[in-house]
Amino acid sequence: MNVANDNAWFVPGMSDESAPVRRCLVCRGLEPVAENQPVWPLGWRCSVCGHIVEQAGGISMFAPELADTIAGFDPKAFDELAELEAEHFWFVSRNRLIAGLANKFFPNARSFLEIGCGTGFVLRAVAELRHWERLVGSELHPAGLAHARKRLPSAVEFVQMDARDIPAAGVFDLTGAFDVIEHIADDEAVLRGLRAATQTGGGTIITVPQHPWLWSRADEVAHHERRYRRGELETKLRRNGFEVLFSSSFTALLLPLMAASRLKNRGKKTTEDIYEFKLNPALNRIFLEVLRAEVGITLAGVRWPAGGSRIVVGQAI
Question: Is the separation of the CB atoms in 140 and 166 below 8 Å?
């Protein structure tokens, strides 16, 4: 695996590509993951150094010192998100696109990890695609996982972790991060971790906000580190062990309205409606139909050069 990784780990006699393994964050030791057990069992004790992973509320805690802190995201926003996602045109349409691409490029995938699963809105859509042998949602903030656990079946595994240091290798044949890595200064550490966790030949789907010229107060309040330039995410994926299979803008048809709104509100310090979630219901329905058409055209083969977001599909090589 030709991936630059500053967090290298190795145990003699065990290859990171030979079998699914979990990884101890203390000693970097590896341990096989059996098919019939969770990736990170509650109370897991490392067989190499004896370290026991903390747990809280039935969740393994790999980065408890960061739990529910304002680290890349304000966990207080999860309550509002949980109420708005199910009807909001952008979240609903993004789910359709993610699900469509997962079915198109990885129809045989049976294990999935979502990094930064938040309230579980995307994870629920993925869960409904097919029968999964292993479905895992990770999140830095337990406040998000509290909502996710209500939305998903009890068989889904949840874990609290720092996405920059994923304690697994070769476990999943599909991974994803949906509007997550723009919150993290070292986004390539996340991509390296996703590559390690993804089986060779498997894939990943990533969405990010696009176009630095769209930067506004909304990005600041959302604790974004960046908006991505066209081609930037693709370059970073290739640099970290993925071949790009698909790349397109998203919300392309609504970009003129988005740009006008961002420019109009640039410089304003108000936080009201800052996530652009609260819309008139009639306008929300119109936007939903516009993006329904856009998603259908995208899945039929059109690639949009510009749009508020970028979605990229990569294959682990």
Answer: no
Any bridge partners for residue 206, and if so which? 177, 312
pTM over 0.70: yes
Alpha-carbon span 86 to 104, nearest angstrom: 24
- Total domains, the chain: 1
CA distance linking residue 99 with residue 150, whole number of Å: 21
The answer to whether 109 and 102 are in contact (CB under 8 A) is: yes
Nearest CA among 113, 104, 106, 102 for reference residue 20: 113
**131-157 residue pLDDT tens:** 999 999 999 999 999 999 999 999 999
161 in any annotated domain? yes
Domain with residue 215: its CATH number is 3.40.50.150
Task: Find the Cα–Cα–Cα–Cα dihedral 81, 85, 90, 91, rounded to 10°.
Answer: 100
